[in-house]
């Protein structure tokens, strides 16, 4: 069982983050960074779309895909995601949301389908707007905040100096996992990336 949808419609790959240069290097913008990398690989440029998202139509691993970065700020991501989904007529099973994850160590990538939002306001907004949790998630580990630092403050800070050295590899792994998810389905991709430490 590979969990690959049977029709040949496009995939929607959504990277979560906050728009604008002040947020560009934040941990919370890991999803934006992965979608930017996928666009770069495809030789595409994300452009403003009426859905309140930057969008690019590309081919990923030979499959049709729409890359999107909501421009509504993290907590209101659901509106643009639902608008892009409606415009391109994409079923929830073909939506992949790429986001930062506090409960995963920095440098690791984990994948799942459905489940709760684990306090992530972007996921909460998407689930509410779509009316379903049954979409795929690529979770980019950013680790827990040090000491008693508030989690919300931590994710709105840039990656640290040591993290920035390893960030390109993390983003490559996350982008690779999106492509493998499209071609091989959830379980084989989990087996591949959950084995990486």
From TrEMBL:
Domain of life where this protein originates: Bacteria
Enzyme Commission numbers on file: 3.1.1.29
Positions of the record's site feature: Discriminates between blocked and unblocked aminoacyl-tRNA: 18
Keywords associated with the record: Cytoplasm, Hydrolase, RNA-binding, tRNA-binding
Catalytic reaction(s) noted: an N-acyl-L-alpha-aminoacyl-tRNA + H2O = an N-acyl-L-amino acid + a tRNA + H(+)
Site (Stabilizes the basic form of H active site to accept a proton): 100
GO molecular function: peptidyl-tRNA hydrolase activity
Location within or outside the cell: Cytoplasm
HAMAP family found in the cross-reference section: Pept_tRNA_hydro_bact (MF_00083)
Family of the protein in this entry: Belongs to the PTH family.
Protein name: Peptidyl-tRNA hydrolase
Species: Frankia umida
